[in-house]
Amino acid sequence: MEREELLGALRERALLEGDFVLRSGRRSRYYLDKYRFETEPALLRALAGRLAGEVAAGEPDSVRLAGPELGAVALVAAASLESELPFLIVRKEGKGYGTSKRIEGVYEAGERVCLIEDVVTSGGAALAAVEALREAGLECRTVVCVVDREEGGAEALAARAVELRPLFRAAELLAAAKTPAKPHG
User: How many CA atoms lie within 13 A of 73 on its CB side?
Assistant: First the structure.
């Protein structure tokens, strides 16, 4: 799927207009519902190829991918299949049973990992995942996301020596309208 076609498909499938409260607590007139594109096979496949390409271009020394639960798991799994790099799942907190791990998957300290994210707003969730990876002894200096909402996430990540590499920016997503965004509901 060509870039502009994918941009249009994301907008048509997942962009909602209305009054929304974001994870960051901010209010927004639009919401990008990641589950509307992550659960659609054709879009997930197209995104996987682009994510894998961006990882190869921006963080070619990565030996693993990682994705925060729950939102980025489908994306990181699909990008793993495309890139043939194994992946890790970063839990919000360690589970209280079994191994009690926060990082799920096999890895060795010192490995370079590229974090895959869905939508970055303030960067809070991505930063929490990067910190968890670093605490586990992994090197993480790049986050590749589907959409950067351009609301401070890139700057927050840069302050922690992490580069944000978005496939799309909110401004281009909002400007790509061939048809009006679907109303909330």
Answer: 10
pLDDT tens, position by position, 57-70: 999 999 999 999 98
Cis peptide bond prior to 70, omega within 30° of 0: yes
Closest by Cα among 75, 74, 73, 55 to 64: 55
Distances from the Cα of 123 to the Cα of 82, 86, 126, 129, 155, angstroms: 25, 24, 5, 10, 8
Kind plus residue range of the DSSP H or E element containing 43 = helix 41-58
CA 136 to chain centre: 20
Burial class (CB in 10 A: 0-12, 13-18, 19+), 24: middle
User: 25's torsion region: left (phi>0), alpha (psi -120 to 50) or beta?
Assistant: left
Cβ 88 vs Cβ 104: under 8 Å:
yes
**3-class state of residue 160 by DSSP:** coil
pTM: 0.90
How many other C-beta atoms can be found within 10 angstroms of the C-beta atom of residue 35? 12
Residue 128 CB: number of other CB atoms within 10 A? 14
